[in-house]
């Protein structure tokens, strides 16, 4: 049966050896207590919960799914109980402000827990995951009263949250949104409209559900400039702060879908429901970006989760499954055949998953460190971190989810036909991973955001905030003979990244379609270079540890070998991306719409 074991050794490597989290926490006001011992204890506890409580429910959730009856949603067996344990363990409050009952720990610790919980059971993890985004939005934009009423209950985990953007006719293009918000005399609003695809919109795991809803005021300008943000509780809070009378919001039905069956995806009907404005009128989309940025990093994590899960299970299988002999003669002559891990193409699939999971972990934890800085560092550091995060968020979201799906497919392929059979869980992993490239902005939309909004509109400044970091690393490591194999290609790609950006910028001045036509290739290229930076850094740390004779030499040698694999087998994918991104828009736009069908 498929299993999950939290990769604590690698997590500790990234936190301590690569990202120097101890110094990072010491430098941030209010985080001094986050010592390595304390962080390790939290991770160990989180790992136990993920492995023992959530992992066994992963296939249960897939098989049973959520059920809908008379407007109520029942989650799969064990989900509710696991959520109670999660709340009792204080996990929802980990990285939220003590002012509202939180533990005040930095986001970068929360992300480690989210990784383990999400890898063990992605569908389950979405319930608290959505709440986390709702909490961040309220913390950033809510009034004091809203924070006291709603945030404290979300932080304690008694209530959960949702994010209600999508409508039947509008997904990517939120400017088309129609849900109405009409003012009442008491300062509240009547919210009317239908939202679809709402994750965790209705369920039986918590006493109340707080919907964060985008809607339009009566006199709002058209398009995205006329959208406001509202809190709409399922049950109205009473004077004592508990869940009171039912509000006019209900689940109309559940979507039947390809994967993540354990998470409820709901059609939500708002029939004049009472809502309260968050932030200024018509600035809802700006406020919602707080939610979306949290969610985007959270979804990037989904790429890592499916890569890690698929890797762990396919590795176990590849060691046990006996088929054919190694090309240079039997590796296990006492057995009827050799384990499939001896075959180069099986190794390629395993190493690809390993390189994506471990590289992805480094990238996401680095982003989480930037989030800590944006929240807590000095103004100067904050601005720098914010710029880097603006660049890296679409890359992490789209690139890691595309590679997470690729990994999940490799995991299935290692199992051969058995991977296609439900019992092994590998086909579930593929199905569950597919959504990550769609929600929180599709890959295409992340790519437009990266190349158009972040890079070209800032005239390359956002890009330079990160290419400078890579440049400095390459310069500093240039004299280390053992780093040549990494620094040479990395520096070359880093320079090329800037040059490609310039070329695309020039083309875009003549024809804006060039941005759209190059965008996904550009994003994937950016992803491969970004991951190369983290793999080069990990190789450097591994070499240093080996030179120092630190224990665990096998771990560091494996790191080095995987880094080499990444540089020699994955980074060269950029060559074809360069060709296609520069091939121009004409090969896409020349065909007349009416002639596509021939
Ligand atoms: C399981 C699931 C859970 C979800 N959870 C939530 C949730 O909790 N809350 C919520 O509000 N929504 C949620 N969604 C909705 C999700 O965010 C949207 O499906 C997504 O944003 C895409 O919108 P759409 O489906 O309308 O596709 P469309 O916007 O219609 O896009 C269709 C295709 O066109 C492409 N496209 C569109 N515009 C462009 C462009 N300018 N350039 C290039 N390509 C373009 C897209 O990339 C896509 O491939 C969920 C969806 C699913 C399936």
From TrEMBL:
Span of domain Acyl-CoA dehydrogenase/oxidase C-terminal: 282-449
Ranges for domain Acetyl-CoA dehydrogenase-like C-terminal: 466-592
Keywords: FAD, Flavoprotein, Oxidoreductase
GO terms assigned for molecular function: flavin adenine dinucleotide binding; oxidoreductase activity, acting on the CH-CH group of donors
Cofactor(s) needed: FAD
InterPro entries referenced in this protein's UniProt entry, alphabetically: Acyl-CoA_dh-like_C_dom (IPR025878), Acyl-CoA_Oxase/DH_mid-dom (IPR006091), Acyl-CoA_Oxase/DH_mid-dom_sf (IPR046373), AcylCo_DH-like_C (IPR036250), AcylCo_DH/oxidase_C (IPR009075), AcylCoA_DH/ox_N (IPR013786), AcylCoA_DH/ox_N_sf (IPR037069), AcylCoA_DH/oxidase_NM_dom_sf (IPR009100)
Pfam family of the protein (one): Acyl-CoA_dh_C
Enzyme class: oxidoreductase
Listed Gene3D superfamilies: Acyl-CoA dehydrogenase/oxidase, N-terminal domain, Butyryl-CoA Dehydrogenase, subunit A, domain 2, Butyryl-CoA Dehydrogenase, subunit A, domain 3
Residue ranges of every copy of the Acyl-CoA dehydrogenase/oxidase N-terminal domain listed in the record: 46-158
Keyword Oxidoreductase: yes
EC number(s) from the headed UniProt entry: 1.3.99.41
Superkingdom of this protein's organism: Bacteria
Record field: catalytic activity: 3-(methylsulfanyl)propanoyl-CoA + oxidized [electron-transfer flavoprotein] + H(+) = 3-(methylsulfanyl)acryloyl-CoA + reduced [electron-transfer flavoprotein]
Domain Acyl-CoA oxidase/dehydrogenase middle: residue ranges: 163-271
Function in brief: Involved in the assimilation of dimethylsulphoniopropionate (DMSP), an important compound in the fixation of carbon in marine phytoplankton, by mediating the conversion of 3-(methylthio)propanoyl-CoA (MMPA-CoA) to 3-(methylthio)acryloyl-CoA (MTA-CoA).
Protein family: Belongs to the acyl-CoA dehydrogenase family.
Descriptive protein name: 3-methylmercaptopropionyl-CoA dehydrogenase
